[in-house]
Amino acid sequence: MVAAFPGAEGGGATATGGRGGRTIVVRNTNATGDGSLYAALMENGTRTIIFQISGIIDWSSVGSVKVTSGDLTVAGQTSPGFGILIKNGNIELQASNIIIRYITMRCGKGSNNGDIITTYGSRQILDHVSISWANNDMWGIWNYGYPNRNTDDITLQWSIVSESFAPPNDPWNLAYHPTLINVGAEGRPNHPEESPYFYNTSIHHNLLSQTNERMPQVKSADASIVNNIIYNSYSIMSMFSGGGTFDFIGNRYKNNILTTRQKEIAGQTKNGVDDMGLPGDPSVYVSNNMNMSGIVPSDQWGMVSGNWYSPTSAPSSWKRNPWIPNTPDIYPITIDSVSDIDSIVLPTVGNSRYIDANGNWVNRNDVVDARYIKDYKNGTGKTPTHQNDVGGYPTYYPTTPYTDSNSDGISDVWAAANGINTSNPANKIAANGYSNLENFINGEHSLTCPKSECNFTITQ
């Protein structure tokens, strides 16, 4: 089995998405209707969604978009220019085997009160997405209200999750919790089907910044938090709860503007609370993390608190050493040195690239993502109460897509050079295990790049 795409790692890396299925083309930025992203998401069957447009999609009239048919790839890297930005809506992934890459979602104040992205299925991977401006969590993994649904084998990688909203009269988010990432089930009494037995969640190589807490919060059976840049929290940075198995490896913690009241990592037991994870004590491995002072302490356990709301020392009985991976992955996470993590993560994190006609990667960052990276580097930034506090939505100008005459998702020039035709179609599986379409959109088989198009970067 090949990975979801080259570079896919962790729990969700075995997703196949739309491999071998049909191609659906998004041709406009309408909220609904023919040629819209919404219509493509509502289709059934094995499918890959590609984009022949770029721009902002306003889901105000739609609200929450529920994806109930899996075997899906959303290839946002096929959208040229600054790509696709979805505002005033959220998405619930109520199916399994899903790949989503290179999409931006900025919910916006007052548009809805749910998580921007919610995962309810298994074998899902989110790669190079940019998520911000939530009225609740940015990304949540739950199975509340969905009996007997497994929510296992999930990855969030190489993404930017930043700037949850604070209420106007509560600038530190203390009255309610628009926060970043929440992994765990409700687990109501007498509802065993809603248990928090979520296995194999991987959160790695992301920029998580500027919020109150949950950077991330994990209350599942196990989770791996690896090589993330975690910046600017007022209250609590990384959190765990219940008798799960949790790894925190090579994460960079930094806190300059907001004033945290906690250590870098805070945990607690279930304590009889329904939605706080499994019974029993946590099993926690910590290694090579950099603390808020910019030091990688030899005593990593000193970065862990035993209470979410006070910086008390965590019991040594929670410590797991040596490291035993939570759930052995077919495609394990590459663990980089935390000392190098800025230079590894920041150049391509978030919705930062697209594929041109030759199959080459072209760099992009909209002004909001560029600001998040700049804030982290400069030690600036804040938790806004409204998107207009931080400049509002950027302008996405229309950009000409690559020419795809037969709407199979592959550019004409790449198809001609690689013999893609009716006898060797886009959905045919090639010798390397990927479909011809995947070999194009994965950017691993580019044509010789003309000098005028090499190393090109677009800016706003």
The fold-level CATH name of the domain at 57-70 and 83-345 is: Pectate Lyase C-like
Query: SS-based structural class?
Result: mainly beta
The number of distinct helices, counting runs of at least 4 residues, comes to 5
Low-confidence stretches: 171-175, 449-456
The H-level CATH homologous superfamily of the domain at 57-70 and 83-345, spelled out, is Single-stranded right-handed beta-helix, Pectin lyase-like
Strand fraction: 15-25%
Question: What CATH first level of the domain at 57-70 and 83-345 would be assigned?
Answer: Mainly Beta
The side-by-side strand order for the widest beta sheet comes to 1-2-5-8-11-14-17-20-23-26
Rg measurement, Å = 21 Å
User: What's the pLDDT, averaged over the residues?
Assistant: 87
Gap from first CA to last CA: 40 Å
Q: How would the global form be characterised?
A: globular
Number of strands: 30
Q: Using the 3D structure, state the CATH architecture of the domain at 57-70 and 83-345.
A: 3 Solenoid
Which range best describes the helical content: under 10%, 10-25%, 25-40%, 40-55%, 55-70% or over 70%?
A: under 10%
